[in-house]
Amino acid sequence: MPGPVSDSYDPEFSTSSNAECVEQGIKDAVEKIGQALGPELKPIVAVAYEDIEMYPSVGVDFSEKDLRCLRFAALRGLESI
Fold first, then answer.
1. 65, CA 20 to 30 Å: which among 20, 33, 38, 43?
2. What is the rounded distance in angstroms from the CA atom of residue 62 to the CA atom of residue 36?
3. What is the pLDDT of residues 46-81, one digit of tens each?
């Protein structure tokens, strides 16, 4: 039977320093997405039900809807770290 696991060990990220690196990467990606979308947040359920044609191009290969969904996923991911 293996011995005790350190408090700094996380089964998903291994050590806490890896989790911090992942967290910073997510924050950087969220910042880039936020720069493309602007600071206004919209309820994700409303966005998910809206037609993609309602959203103008934001100068990247993703639609505003795609970016809002990605930003939501990234923000929820940060909460679980």
1. 20
2. 10
3. 998 998 888 888 766 666 787 787 888 888 888 888
Q: pTM higher than 0.85 for the full model?
A: no
Tokens for 67, please give them.
């970016």
Q: Which helix (H) or strand (E) holds 14?
A: strand 14-15
- Length in residues, the chain: 81
C-alpha 31/C-alpha 21 separation (Å) is: 15
Q: Where is 23: in which H helix or E strand?
A: helix 16-37
Residues 6+ apart with CB under 8 A from 63: 52, 55, 57
